[in-house]
Amino acid sequence: MTDPDSIDPVLEATGSVPNGPGEPPAEDAAHHPEALLRVNDVRKVYGSGHTEVVAVSDATMAVDQGEFVALLGPSGSGKTTLISIIGGLLAPTSGTVHVGNADVGNMTRKQLTAFRAERVGFVFQSANLVPFLTARENLLFVSSLVKGISKKQAQQRADELLAELGLADRAKNLPEQLSGGERQRVAIGRALMNDPDLVLVDEPTAALDTAMGRQVVEMLRREVKSRGKTGIMVTHDLRMVEYTDRVFEILDGHLTHVEQPSALGH
Q: Among 34, 160, 263, 264, which residue has the least CB neighbours within 10 Å?
């Protein structure tokens, strides 16, 4: 008899199996030839021979400018590995990633550093704020990594973002003086500070209760859509996919299918 506690709620609710329901990601990608993000046959392998582990297997996906999509799957499914490759934090074993006309896999280390600083905004599972910097200083630190932004411009943008995120009165607070939801909002502001093309979000609700999680994801969606960015949210939480435009499901490193959020049970 199957132990009900051993059943992964994502797998049970979505029927996630290779070649499961929904459109295959490769066929879906063909419908988005002008997508800002194009991932083609990306594979990530660790080790070799009998120790080989395939973390991501031949992933293909396309996401348009202005879209906010979910990458849904259970723990260990390869979600974080895939967005790390998309964001230039990890190199694929094979395959290609293009953001606009930029071929991320063929960049030098120096080019990757500039790409991550200028074109990608990251929001990690834990806010990862610099603990000895205030909320405002955490945003300003990001702008210091990019050439061509004056101190005055950076300060103005930081203040505008903090106000937009409802944090104007918390600008001078250190991370330890902020709630979990406030820290995540600072992290969102930091991700948007340099006006990136691509916003990558890894499990933003993991440390939050349901109400605060919904507030944070609603805010992410609003910021991505209103600014015309391309956003990918990694999650295992079915309750959050309703805020996305499409849902890519991943299991054991395989992108299995693409669904509309309304097709998934919440």
A: 34
